[in-house]
Write a structure and sequence with these properties.
This protein has 267 residues and is mainly alpha-helical. The chain is built from eleven helices and no strands. The chain is globular.
Length: 267
Amino acid sequence: MLDDFFVRALLAGIGLALVTGPAGCFVVWRRLAYFGETIAHSALLGVALAILFGFNLVLGIFVTASAVVLAMFFLERRDTLPTDTLLGLLAHGGLALGLVILSFFPTMQLDLHALLFGDILAVSRADLAVVWIGGAIALGVLWWIWRPLLAATVSADLATVAGLKPERAQLVFGILVAAAIAVAIKVVGVLLIVALLVIPAATVRRFATSPEKMAAGAAAAGVIAVAGGLFASAELDTPSGPSIVVAALALFAVTRIRRSRSPGNAR
């Protein structure tokens, strides 16, 4: 019989994987892993601002991450610096500013380990509701922007000519990733959320025959990683968040080995 806290952790992880899997496909297709890292790093600034102004932690992270997305969106169009340079400035600038703000609260009890690596076993019923309700909304938004975002991934110019408003879709997707990261902080933490976005999508990429099948496969791979990581964590007494990522990485490695050994890939 599974304990209640374990069931809540499992349901929270599955709810998160159902969102990060499909969203992660666009992160992989559009090579936005560093973009995800930038948003994740801004989470510490969001935590600092939430403490400073008395906001809810998730709300503070979401607002800050969304501000980083908006800043990146406008800087890309008005600045001559390369995208990776802008991302580096925003990522490390946000991280440093967050640490400076937190230094003004020396008596504040903040579990940095949980912030960095998550604490999925501490998920409450309220957290579970946020994950699943927010996840349903996120999937609805992703379905709404799916066609223009997919077209922009293939060719932004063609998408613009077709009247699909690709820039709006890209901005909405960035805010969607910010929301996913804000919700996921408690589950897998700042340092591991991008792995949950990237690894499941990368795992199924070579097997998928269409974008939609890849999105479904990435969600399934994420669910398997969550379940495998949590059960391994319980059995081996290892940290739950990192265990989920290790399980996802193991699944990726297994699929790569099986693919390379198949007759059609023999060289």
